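Example 412, ligand 2-acetamido-2-deoxy-beta-D-glucopyranose.
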Amino acid sequence: MARGRAGEKEEGEKHIGLLKLAQTLSFLLIFMAGIIIGLAASSHIDRYFNSLPTTTFSSSSSATLQTVSDYSNCTVIHRDCTGDDENHDDDAAKRKRRDRDCWSVDGFVRPENLSHGMSDDELFWRASMVPAKEGYPYERVPKVAFMFLTRGPLPMLPLWEKFFRGNEKYLSVYVHTPPGYDMNVSSDSPFYDRQIPSQKVEWGSPLLTDAEKRLLANALLDFSNERFVLLSESCVPVYNFSTVYSYLINSAYSFVDSYDEPTRYGRGRYSRKMLPDIKLHHWRKGSQWFEVNRKLAIYIISDSKYYSLFKQFCRPACYPDEHYIPTFLNMFHGSVNANRSVTWVDWSIGGPHPATYGADNITEGFLQSIRKNETDCLYNEEPTSLCFLFARKFAPSALAPLMNLSSTVMGF
Ligand SMILES: *[C@@H]1O[C@H](CO)[C@@H](O)[C@H](O)[C@H]1NC(C)=O
Ligand SMILES: *[C@@H]1O[C@H](CO)[C@@H](O)[C@H](O)[C@H]1NC(C)=O
Ligand SMILES: *[C@@H]1O[C@H](CO)[C@@H](O)[C@H](O)[C@H]1NC(C)=O
Ligand SMILES: *[C@@H]1O[C@H](CO)[C@@H](O)[C@H](O)[C@H]1NC(C)=O
Ligand SMILES: *[C@@H]1O[C@H](CO)[C@@H](O)[C@H](O)[C@H]1NC(C)=O
Ligand SMILES: *[C@@H]1O[C@H](CO)[C@@H](O)[C@H](O)[C@H]1NC(C)=O
Ligand SMILES: *[C@@H]1O[C@H](CO)[C@@H](O)[C@H](O)[C@H]1NC(C)=O
Ligand SMILES: *[C@@H]1O[C@H](CO)[C@@H](O)[C@H](O)[C@H]1NC(C)=O
């Protein structure tokens, strides 16, 4: 069309009729296209505005006109984030809920409510998201996520509360309990409302590793969490919070126990059915009580390929919680792992379970032997005597003497 129009103008009278016809045709074509586009757009706009309640529309437009910088009134979501619109409590509470901006960055900085209805698949997908843009649109204070995997009560709770006190800005707590278990803690405790949606756990089965991943994923939803520690109800801290925090935040390495054990308790649990993806020389063992940084946490919850091999082929006497993360990290991220745990444990008594310490065993000398253990260890490639930040296993009876000694021996 364009070429025809330009050429024929120069050719003269005999083609003028053809030219007119061409011009008319192209005009008609453009006109018709315009009508079609116009109709389509207006139906979109109609549908869009019809779906918005008029109150939301008018209030957001007036806020835009007054002060653009005042985000508090820029309500863009007219439905309750928690989804329980049906609640018939008082109007003010309802309005407050309705007016909350569900898309605000606050939801990433500190998710307000840990309860959600996501399945593990949905949760892991959601938690695996990484911003592509450098920096943060808020002042980010990196936090340590303390993730407790418990079988119910947390007997050492008062000791942890004492340890956390005054440092709330630098930490988040997550607790995975048996489903239906309700932790009864006071509303000023860092443990208050920190139970994540939990599922049944069987020790030694893949359900245990599922629970570890569920803790990691829930903690990843808070973009300020930078380091992730897995703890049990029998774990205690052995240094004060500032020591633990700076040790973890400033470490170039994550602390996941990962070693090659050439016995039936190590390599003996490897299954050739994992070939060709997992080979015997990849296989590692290690304590489940890990500490990882954000990057590794995202790799762990994002993996399905290798995890599904463990779920299929690592069955008793193979225990995924002792092999999956140590092996997976060894295969892909070994260079950023210190290959040691920061949680002290005593295997010296022999047998399948480590020693449990009760009230009678807690002395200043004992605690100091954990704090300044001469075990060779490196911190950021330098030798150090500070190898352990936490210790297990402690019976409930150890709580009273530990509370007694915490300020003089452990500095909190
Ligand atoms: C925002 O709301 C507050 C009270 O909720 C009101 O005082 C203020 O004028 C409102 N600001 C704008 C820009 O509408
Ligand atoms: C969190 O959400 C759940 C369900 O949506 C609700 O029952 C609970 O009260 C909420 N907690 C807080 C602190 O808002
Ligand atoms: C929760 O703890 C408080 C104070 O310790 C106690 O009074 C209350 O009975 C407990 N509630 C339940 C359900 O255990
Ligand atoms: C924590 O303990 C260290 C010694 O281990 C001490 O130097 C530091 O002052 C303590 N921090 C606080 C806040 O008590
Ligand atoms: C941990 O082990 C890996 C092998 O998986 C090795 O590459 C890495 O250097 C070790 N880390 C340290 C700190 O030695
Ligand atoms: C703890 O103390 C009791 C009683 O003194 C003793 O029998 C036990 O061996 C001690 N446990 C450990 C692990 O040292
Ligand atoms: C270090 O801990 C081990 C137990 O894991 C213990 O046997 C040893 O005595 C401790 N070392 C020191 C110097 O306290
Ligand atoms: C606490 O320590 C004091 C002395 O330091 C001691 O007399 C007391 O028995 C200890 N209490 C417990 C529960 O260990």
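Summary: The CA atoms of residues 242 and 368 lie 18 Å apart.
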